[in-house]
Amino acid sequence: MKKKWVLRDKAKELPNLPEYPAFILNLLALRGFTDAGKAKEYLNIDYIKLHDPFLFVHMEKACDRIWQAIKDNEKIIIYSDYDADAITALAVMYKALSQLGAKDLGYYIPDRFTEGYGMNPEAVRKLCEDGAKLIITVDCGINAVEEVVTAKSFGVDVIITDHHELTGELPQAFAVINPKNPEDQYPFKYLTGVGVAFKVVQALSRNTQHVSGITMSPGWEKWLLDLVAIGTVADLQPLTDENRIITSFGLKVLHRTKWPGLKAILKLAGVDGKISDTYTLGFIIAPRINAAGRIKHADIAFKLLICEDQAEAEKLALELNALNTHRQQLTEQVLSEARDQIQLISDKKVLLAAGSDWPKGVVGLVAGKLVEEYGRPVLVMDKGELVATGSARSVHNFDIVAALNSAKELLTKYGGHTQAAGFTLITENIPALHSKLLEYAETLDEEALGPIIEIDAEAGSPDLTFETYDLLSKFEPFGYGNHRPKLVTFGFEVMDMRLVGAVGRHLKLRVRLQDKVLEAIAFNQAFWMQSLKIGQKVDIVYELSCNEWNNQRNLELKVIDLKPNG
To answer: Regarding beta strands 452-455 and 420-426, do their DSSP bridges make them parallel or antiparallel, or are they unpaired?
Structure first.
């Protein structure tokens, strides 16, 4: 699909940092860093800049209740969801409470296929009947009004730790730790589920004198940051503020991880001992954690993350790897079937596909891939005889939860955040849901629907240097909300081109601009081979990268899109 290029205007005000070139200063200013001090903070990430966890209005109350439960040996249950954010949050909370002396500690992960996401009254009732005295949620619970009422009827307290949007009334829990809680004024609203869980652990770690015999060294909780970083990147929350700090230090911890499960995943994927980045977190570790809940049960991934025995960890990692391979095969099958439906309605502003017996665990992945292909919000659902369960993925400035909210009378259940959501509805309401979403889309500006490539800056020959690349590396870690800068250069001359990859899916180019000759790689863009010619001038949108081989560094353009020049 042809994409619209939008080149941002140069910043009117630059930070006063004369030691940096104007090209870098402009990129900093476009990210909002016009103040020299704030710009330096961005370029030099400092762990101490994490916000005080007690800024959450219910944090002190929550910690006091948890310490009471530990001291009194009450049965504590951590209630999780089943995706990578939730499972890492569960692992973080479980490891921390174990370290802090919790003796009667359990967990509950719902089954995606029989229970769906979030809390459910039946599970809460069973946990209460089995002796739970305190339920702590991770990555779920903010809309669990009925479930909290059920727990309270048994005299069981519920502490909600979550980051999702509130879609109705606030549950009357003992405490609610959620940056999106309207009663809260926490300064950073975009923590993930595991990020919120970590803030609770931070707060608990401030004072370990409540229970005798605990020997926790100061800063022990930092060893959990690799798990926190995985969930943070996996859940596609903005890598700004606390999320960027957490991910940056989490990557450092991952190099020396204490957890046999993570060591086993990295070894099996062939990346142990190599430099880790957000790609490692989001595309190597997270999919394997997610695969358990998508195909079988997330319990397998959780057991891997808390496993203390390396041999057992390697066995569980092999099982996860096999599930991930199976997940990939199912995804391709459903993607093909969903694409056939989408092609018939590809002119619509919101796209929808539904199929019988589509695995619930892959519909979200399929929706994400179709968003990339069509540049439109996409809903994909498993259509049962009576009930349909689906996932939605969105684009750009289109808030998918707000869209679903406009059709809430048709939905049995829904929730999520601006770019991703889950929902259920009566199957016969699917056409009406699509109509409602299309009506909602008509109320928005066309630019909210894409497909648009937002370009940060134009780069000329003097900017294409290792100095520029090294300074751009200080903008890391990259991810959603803190993207790798997209650059454009007009008038490259094509000197050479060839197809590469196992089946020739990628295009390798050699291009020249004045005195610079550079390699460029266009992944999954082999189709350009049919229309480009040697000697032709092209405009390229790209990310500046570096190819390191045999101790040699070569600048390379990672092509996002290109257009013939003239």
So the answer is: unpaired
